Amino acid sequence: MIEKPGSGGAYLATNIKDVASKAGVSIATVSHVLNGTRNTRPQTRQRVLAAIQELGYSQNQAARNLASGRSTLMGLVISDIRNPFFPEITAAFQDQALVHNMDALVFNTNYDSQRTLNSVKRLIGLQVPAMAILTSQIDPGVIDMLAEQQIAAVYLDLGRVDRHISNILLDYEHGIAEALEYLRNLGHEHIAYIGGPSALHSAQRRKKAFVETAVQLGIDPGRTFESDFTVKGGYFACAKMLKSQTPTAILAANDLTAIGVLHCAYDGSVRVPEDLSVVGFDDILIAEYTQPALTSVALPRTEIGKVAFQALWAMLGDPAVGGSEYRIGTSLVVRGSAVAPQHHKAAS
Fold first, then answer.
1. C-beta of residue 111 within 8 angstroms of C-beta of residue 79
2. CA angle, corner 83, sides to 292 and 130, nearest 5?
């Protein structure tokens, strides 16, 4: 920034012309150094960077967008920034954006469809060419609105693919089935399930997978309880369950719920895994640091973030090609929170 003479310390914004003058180069050369659009001699590049640092110059992104006629911004809309499931997705998406000379604007909806709508409208107002909407709380009208404006969009578990629409399908069914089969193979017959809010499509799919797999394995499919995907919700759902049932294992719809179950069991003097086995879903970073370490179904969150960006980039590169569906698989990570039930050990 440049101090304005006689202004008592007021400052004028430095522009690219000031940088060029300071470095003794053309404005075009400064632009090439900033945007990496053409190789420059190392000495010239160093002079430009030194001038930028000395003058405190920063690019006006809005002006760049107006001048070029296209935005370098992309939108990322997620359900809950406080949920450890989302930071890795966000980081991977932002990393990909930077690699492609783009920037990512992140909006948090807190599972509120109205906030999702407001976030999308703000991104449209900023003229973003593409956005990833990784939340299941979305009004169908939003999808049509973005398609009509030819804004590329990728969704999470939407199940629809079209000209400007891509979809990332998470294989919840395989993950739930693998976890349930693992518990059954350990010898558990009395397995309960704590799911997420029934209004969420992802929660519906996980619960359906539990019920269908339980029937196939000869397990009572009626031991299901609804919660809200939080630690507190998992705690109270577990407390309610243990008052009326005595399962030997609990499968939780996400790791936060499972951590709530671990706390509830500890407060109730129920030993995990000796008296109660617990399995989570998502394999968030803290899952391996619980006591005992949590067995969980892993979803590759970094891959989700990368795929979300790449789906948008592909549609931007050739709008005529249209959207695609991307399937993300799961894998069971075995740790210390699930073992064979005591009666099974005694019988074997």
1. yes
2. 140
How many C-beta atoms surround the C-beta of residue 184 within 10 A? 18
In order of their start, the domains of the chain are 2-59 (1.10.260.40), 71-169+301-328 (3.40.50.2300), 172-299+333-347 (3.40.50.2300)
Q: Which of 5-9, 51-55, 241-245 has the highest mean pLDDT?
A: 241-245
pLDDT at 36: 60
Upstream peptide bond of 273 is cis (omega within 30 degrees of 0):
yes
Whole-angstrom distance, CA of residue 25 vs CA of residue 320: 41
Give the predicted TM-score (pTM) of the model: 0.76
Q: Which residue has the tokens 């499919």?
A: 221
Q: Where are the alpha helices (DSSP H) in the chain?
A: 16-23, 27-35, 42-55, 61-68, 85-99, 113-125, 140-148, 172-186, 201-217, 231-244, 255-267, 301-317, 342-347
pLDDT at 60: 52
Highest mean pLDDT among 16-30, 97-111, 157-171, 324-338 belongs to 324-338
Q: Phi/psi zone of residue 135: left (φ > 0), alpha (ψ -120 to 50 degrees), beta?
A: beta
d(CA 276, CA 247): 7
pLDDT band for 100, please (50, 70, 90 cuts).
Answer: confident
pLDDT tens digits, residue range 172-192? 999 999 999 999 999 999 999
Cis? peptide before 84, omega within 30° of 0: no
Are 147 and 167 in contact by the 8 Å Cβ rule? The answer is no
> Any residues with CB less than 8 A from the CB of 31 and at least 6 apart, and which?
16, 37
Candidates 262, 251, 114; CA nearest to 191 is: 251
**Residue 58 pLDDT grade (very low, low, confident, very high; cuts 50, 70, 90):** low
Eight-state DSSP code of residue 162: B
Could you please report the per-residue DSSP string of 173-232?
HHHHHHHHHHHHHHT---EEEEE--TTSHHHHHHHHHHHHHHHHHT--TT-EEE--SSHH
Buried b / exposed e across 56-70, counting CB within 10 Å, b at 16+? ebeeeeeeebeeeee
